[in-house]
Amino acid sequence: MDKSTGRPTKKKVVAVVGGGLVGALNACFFAKRGFNVEVFESREDIRQAKVVKGRSINLALSHRGRQALKHVGLEEKIVSQGIPMHARMIHSPSGKQSPIPYGKKGQVIFAPSEAETYPNTKLNFEHKLHDWTAETGLMTFVRSDGSKEQIKADLIVGCDGAFSAIRKQFLRRSRFNYSQTYIPHGYMELTMPPINGQFAMKPNYLHIWPRNTFMMIALPNLDKTFTCTLFMPFEEFEKITTGDEVIEFFQKYFPDTIPLIGSDALRRDYFRLPAQAMVSVKCSPYHINDKCVLMGDAAHAVVPFYGQGMNAGFEDCIVFDEIMEQFNEDFSSVLPEYTRVRVPDDHAIADLAMYNYIEMRAHVNSKWFLFRKHVDNI
Ligand code: FAD
C-alpha cells in the first residue's frame, strides 16, 4: 500500500523519459496511481550541480497548467513561488516607460524533486535514451561514463522535449504523420543583475521593448535578476560580430538597458551562447499500441508566441490521468483514446501560436507589443 495515496502499489513499471517540466509532473501523476515510476533524464541532477549549464526560461503559468498542478497537490507550492505580473511595461526607444494593465504571470520552479517525494518513484539522472523497441518496451540508456544500461518498462512515456529520441521510433512506423517548421526568428537570453540587492526595474511587470521586426522582453526572477529575452531574425543576430557592434545595437534600440545589464556583460554575454532556434512540431498518433505515449514538447513543440507550450504539456498529464480513470488503467484502451482526444487540441494550440507569430510579423509596429497577449487569460 502506498502511504501517500492509500492505493495499492502496482507492479507495473512506467518509464518516464525526460525529467523536464512535463516529465516531472507526469511522474507525480503515475506515482499517485501507485505505479512503479522510473524517470530517466539525460542531464545531471541540477540540485547537486556546481555549475548549471544551459538556459532557463521564465514561463507563464496559466489556468490549464494550474489545474494539472492542483491535481497532484502542487498548485499552491508552485504559485506561491511565482512573481505576479500586474501589467506590461512598454519601453520606447527614448527610454520612456508606459504601463498597460495585464493579468497575472508567474515563474515556474518545478523540478523532478517533487516527484521524488513519492516512495514508488526513482530518478535516474545522466541517463540518455539511446534506443528503444516498441514491441518489447526495452530501452537502452547511455550513462555519463559512456556505459550502457538496458531497462524494460510496461509503459514508456516520452517527455523528452522537442527533439525527442522516443519520437524517432514513431517516425519509422507506417501511418505516423509528422511535420516540423523552424521560424526565421531566434532568441537569446541576457541577465540583468540586481542593483544594491534590489531589482534593477519594477518587478511586477512584463517589460517589453517592441522594435518592428524584433523585440526584447524581461521577466523578474526570485534572485532579483531579470531574464531579458531578445527575439530577432537569425540574420540580424548574425550581423553583430563584435562587442562594439553589440553596444552600438543596444544604443540604438535599447539604450535604457545598457547601464542596467552592464556594457561589459553585454559585450561578453551576447556571444556566450548562439541564438536559439524555435521549432513547431506536429505529429499524430501520440501512441504506439499499449506501450508508448508522447506528451509535452515531444508530442507538440510550439513556438512561444502564445505562451502555452508548458501549459499544454501540463494539460496532457491531466487529460491522460482522466482517461486512465475512465478506462480503468487499461493501457490498450487508454492510449488510443488519449490520441483521439488530445491531438486536435494540441494541434490547435500549435496553430494559434504560429498564427500569433505570423500576425505579429505582418503587423510589426502594432502587434509586437501585444506579444504573449494570451497571458491576459491567467
Ligand atoms: P523540456 O522542458 O524540453 O524537457 C525535456 C527533458 O528531456 C529535458 O530535461 C531533457 O534534458 C530531457 N531529454 C532530452 N532528450 C533526452 C534523452 N534522449 N534521454 C533522456 N532525457 C532526455 N510555455 C508556457 O506554457 N508559457 C510560457 O510563457 C513559455 N515561454 C517560453 C519561452 C521560450 C523562449 C521558449 C523557448 C519556450 C517557452 N514555453 C512556454 C514552452 C515551454 O518551455 C515548453 O513547452 C516546456 O518546457 C516543455 O516541457 P517538456 O517537459 O515537454 O520538455
Shape: elongated
Mean pLDDT: 86
Gap between N and C termini, in Å?
A: 38 Å
Q: CATH H-level name of the largest domain... which superfamily?
A: FAD/NAD(P)-binding domain
Q: What is the strand tally?
A: 16
- Identify the CATH architecture of the largest domain: 3-Layer(bba) Sandwich
CATH class of the largest domain: Alpha Beta
Which ligands accompany this protein? flavin-adenine dinucleotide
Task: Give the DSSP E fraction (strand runs of 2 or more residues).
Answer: 25-35%
Placed side by side, the strands forming the largest sheet appear as: 4-3-11-12-13-10-14
User: What's the Cα radius of gyration?
Assistant: 21 Å
State the low-pLDDT regions, or none: 103-110, 372-378
Largest sheet: 7 strands, mixed
| Helix/strand/pairing category | alpha/beta
- CATH domain fold name of the largest domain: FAD/NAD(P)-binding domain
> What is the total domain count?
2
Short characterization:
With 378 residues, this protein is of the alpha/beta class. It is built from 13 helices and 16 strands. It starts with 12 loop residues before the first strand and ends in an 11-residue tail after the last helix.
